[in-house]
Amino acid sequence: AQSVAQPEDQVNVAEGNPLTVKCTYSVSGNPYLFWYVQYPNRGLQFLLKYITGDNLVKGSYGFEAEFNKSQTSFHLKKPSALVSDSALYFCAVGIYSGAGSYQLTFGKGTKLSVIP
Amino acid sequence: EAQVTQNPRYLITVTGKKLTVTCSQNMNHEYMSWYRQDPGLGLRQIYYSMNVEVTDKGDVPEGYKVSRKEKRNFPLILESPSPNQTSLYFCASSRGLGPYEQYFGPGTRLTVT
Description:
The structure holds two protein chains of two kinds.
Chain A: E1 3-5, E2 10-14, E3 19-21, E4 24-26, E5 32-38, E6 44-50, E7 56-58, E8 64-68, E9 73-78, E10 87-96, E11 102-106, E12 110-115
Parallel strand pairs in A: 2-12
Antiparallel strand pairs in A: 1-4, 3-9, 5-6, 5-10, 7-8, 8-9, 10-11, 10-12
Chain B: E1 4-7, E2 10-13, E3 19-25, E4 31-38, E5 42-51, E6 54-57, E7 65-66, E8 76-78, E9 87-94, E10 103-104, E11 108-112
Parallel strand pairs in B: 2-11
Antiparallel strand pairs in B: 1-3, 3-8, 4-5, 4-9, 5-6, 7-8, 9-10, 9-11
């Protein structure tokens, strides 16, 4: 069975510093990987995805993520954090099984707080 | 504007009183799904639908029903709500499975007393 781990419940970073939100996964096969962001009292919004090709993926609001197959990781990064980046971030992994069914699994989320 | 709408946004009800949470999307998406979000558990899928009249169970389907009679609508039905169904519910839609991102509704906060 596939799984997604976001090892940090909360990440605190000072405004202007680089930020990293970690995600590791366990699947059999080639996954689709996603990051979503949830602002308070809002639904999740898509940030970026990895399908295939270049391991560095760029997304919305200056975020990027690096797919590392050997470490089975897909960490979210941003060079310079903004206070407005404070939100809950979800990693998700999707994969087709041998039987042709598709499963999308979300991590438990990481709360990012950017301190002015 | 492309969007997923849910109603109601907030609902307080009592155990056993049937309720329906509506979900509608205006993007002509094939795939729709329902999730519940609980602290410490993240998002868990309840049901999904790959097209009209095609629905299937997700990870936590017990106590819920869905229907997909029209492409744009995917209501979530709780026939006999219980307190353990108190949660934040999200509807989502996408063009399909696999590499397609999902578009989420604003959420419905349900409290069952």
